[in-house]
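Cont'd.
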Amino acid sequence: MAKTILAVDDSVSIRQMVAFTLKSAGYEVIEAVDGQDALDKARQRTFNLVLTDINMPRMDGLKLLESLRKISQYQAVPILMLTTESTDEMKAKGRSAGATGWLVKPFNPGSLVEVIKKVIK
Amino acid sequence: MTDDQDIHPESGFCVSDNSLNELSDCILSDESDEFFLEIKKDLNQIERLVSDAVNNLVINFKFISQLTKSHHEMVMAIETLAVPNQNEPILELLRRQMLIADKIEHELEGAITSLQFGDLVTQLLAHTSNQLDMFVRVLQRIDSHGKNSPAEEKSVMDVTQKISEAMRTAQSRTKRKTVVQQAMHNGEIELF
């Protein structure tokens, strides 16, 4: 059975590119338009991995990360941040909030799939 | 959302005229209202054009990718038919076809990275728009703080007059806007 990934980004084009890349690699992909939408979807089912942007309306990626880590089913689920943010300060915030990894946009599809294969259970 | 706001559905990038309306009490208001509103409109137009272009490119990308997949499957099917007869010329052609298919796939991977430029541009535009709002607020603050005494008021008037002149110069030099398109539709053709 295909592993399921929750892809969170407010940009339609980024979501489409992520979904295309991951579906081509054999994963099932569910999209969410912001942190709040992602949290609602994550409460309905447990995903094998969450890949999220940071700067989004309603709920940003860091808040989503913190909220997910408070849910028992998501304490061990890999959560990757895919963002334009690349400062050490932001990365430290992500790390302390429980992020599994940090990918800076634009992403390379091969590298994205490689990282996901490494961390997904 | 108010009527004078325009929020792009993808990015949430927002151009609001409210911050500009607040300038109405300023000494600079006549020039600045028009000047800043024009810049905001331009930023909004750029955002729309970029998003429109990226969305179209993504559709093109998906179609090409689908065609490549179909082509790949067809080559495999022909190969299956050609193998029992060991038709070497056909098998050689198929090998070449597979090489081409691999190269197209590699190029499509590169396109996935390039197509993300829209998201970066949108975020930069939102940042520029916020900086512009900040600048407008600074001008308002300068204007309101300088009215404690006639001397202060005169000093502020001098500064704002210079800023107004600079704005007028900038506007007169950039009067002709060469891009009016709001979306990436085909351009009109006119025969004379």
